[in-house]
Amino acid sequence: MPEVTGILLENAQLLLRNAGYELDQVGLVYEEAYKPEDEVTGQHPPPGALVAVDEPVRLTVSRKSLLHHLPQVYQKGDRTGGHLMRQFLWIFDHIYADLQRRIDSIPTCFDPLEAPPAFLQWLASWVALAIDQDWPEPKKRKLIQQAIDIYGLRGTVRGLKLFLSIFTGVEPRLLENQWPYEGFRIGRVRIGLDSIVLPPVELAHSFIVEVPAEFTDASDETILKIHDIIRMEMPAHCAYYLTFAVNSGRDRLQAFVIGLGRVGTADAGVVVGTREAQEASQDTE
């Protein structure tokens, strides 16, 4: 049995739950004492006792009686020192104490860092922030906390980097007025690697987002959410390209380069598009 005397009831319940006790088997007895309200002043079984997990636990908790809200005439005890009215009002304390604690903790519901998880979507609606239900809870809290700052930077490089860094945990690079593909040019472009068929791209309204993490470290769902964030935070008339860090130790795909590769010649003898093809071509030369 852990020792919970001298700490607040909320912390005592947490210790008992971690020790394997269910909260429905923890009974509470309120008494007036010169202690902070909701502090545990006594416990049964005593601390250190070896008891069964299903054995009932009783905690004595300091609490100010509702008797003090009544006129003075009702606060007097009888000749024997007992007080029938105080004992009677403890019944209502046991019924409504949990509700009173929730009312007292209402200010925490407006703090993104302390609000219960069920309130996060509600808090996000206060600042007109659309958050995905599948986002991790710490990221939801941080985004809600910084939503006003992000709105002031919306549509800017700094704002997009701030939003992405909160979600991904790393700060990406944004390369403005750049695009990874220059278009098809014989002798300079590798087919299938840096030439693809796309609509015309205006470099003045395009940018590249480089995430300093490997592509394999991110799930498909995470990548889709990154795309959603970029589309939501970037100017509507812009085009973007998302890329991830490349591991230099990996083999990269080698492609056939028009103007440099020789196919069908007597000294070629290679397979187009493989690393072995490039090495064999260099050996024959």
Summarize the entry for a quick read.
With 285 residues, this protein is an alpha/beta fold.
Most strands sheet: 3 strands, mixed
Work out the radius of gyration: 34 Å
Individual helix count: 8
- Unreliable stretches (pLDDT < 50, length at least 5) are 248-256, 263-278
What shape does the CA trace take?
elongated
Report the mean per-residue pLDDT as an integer: 76
Strand content: 5-15%
Name the helicity range.
25-40%
Features:
single chain; 285 residues; alpha/beta; three-stranded mixed sheet
Q: What does this entry look like structurally?
A:
The N and C termini lie far apart (81 Å). Among the domains are: 9-109, no CATH class; 110-152. α6 packs antiparallel against α7. It has 8 helices and 6 strands. By secondary structure, it is α/β, with parallel strands linked by helices. The strands form 2 sheets. Strands 1-3-2 form a 3-stranded mixed beta sheet. It has a 3-stranded mixed beta sheet with strand order 4-5-6, with no helix packed on it. β5, α7 and β6 form a beta-alpha-beta unit. It has helices at residues 9-18, 84-104, 120-126, 137-145, 147-152, 157-168, 220-233, 275-284, and strands at 26-31, 40-44, 57-62, 173-176, 206-214, 239-245. The protein is elongated and about 105 Å long. Helices cover 31% and strands 13% of the residues. The longest helix has 21 residues, at 84-104.
Set down the secondary structure blueprint.
Elements: H1 9-18, E1 26-31, E2 40-44, E3 57-62, H2 84-104, H3 120-126, H4 137-145, H5 147-152, H6 157-168, E4 173-176, E5 206-214, H7 220-233, E6 239-245, H8 275-284
Parallel strand pairs: 1-3, 5-6
Antiparallel strand pairs: 2-3, 4-5
Helix pairs in contact: 6-7
